[in-house]
Please model this.
Amino acid sequence: MPGIEPDLVERGRLFVVATPIGNLGDLSPRAVEVLSDADLIVAEDTRRTRKLLSHARISTKMISCHRDNESARLDGLLSRLEGGEALALVSDAGVPLISDPGALLVRACIDREIPVECIPGPSAITSALVVSGLPVDRFTFEGFLPRAQKARRSRLEGLAGEERTMVFFEAPHRMKAMLTDAALVLGATRQCAICRELTKIHEEVWRCSLREAAERFASVEPRGEYVVVIEGATPSDAEAHEVEAAAREAIALALETGATPREAAAAGEVAGLSRSSAYKLAVSIARQDSRGDRR
Model:
């Protein structure tokens, strides 16, 4: 590329390069320079990256490195790096390694003392947080929830007492199930922001309760890429969740040792639940046990 010095990129180094999450105009000048001067671009999907390179008039050679072949590619890529080549790692969009492949290569480079440098740029996580309207001073990124309902609800139950704002990625065909379960487990009134197609022409952000979000997606066919931002629990919510979690564990243990639901409820009361709440929980757990579906 004209104006680029041949020694701009240091050799024998892995550059982890952030790329646009939608708008190609978000590719930084520094990213263009590194991608242009690298000896090889390691791309999650060469077909998608080729469109970006064509837009930026970059002709650097590419090789694919995705979840199915990352292990097999590792030795060859490390040999090139140890041989003095500069490699640029990119994912399909955003910052590599964040719910994307590349972690094996970065870890292997660190273990072999091969320099790793990040070229920062667009991120769907921070973009969604900024437009969500929810607190962003403390947050946690949870990636994709499990596909199976039982595992998904279990993960959400583990997050019910989380006080930080939570960020999730989700596939369009699982949005309905994800939001339904989130409303059920985290609370229907919990606030959220549903971010669709960030930085693209059809970008949309819906700010509403989880109940309203679940109702909306029950009647529409989701399309595009989604980031879901959910409000964290209040301190009182978190405390209540801790009490219920302790009571659930105590009741389950009592049931396993042969106690009746009424007898097991006493263990729930000791943990802090009211008598009626403890009994309802004991009956619920006993029913789940009888179906072989306890979560």
About this structure: The chain has eleven helices and ten strands. Residues 13-122 form a domain with the Cobalt-precorrin-4 Transmethylase; domain 1 fold (CATH 3.40.1010.10). The longest strand covers residues 139-144. Strands lie at 13-17, 40-43, 62-64, 86-90, 116-119, 139-144, 165-170, 191-196, 204-209, 226-230.
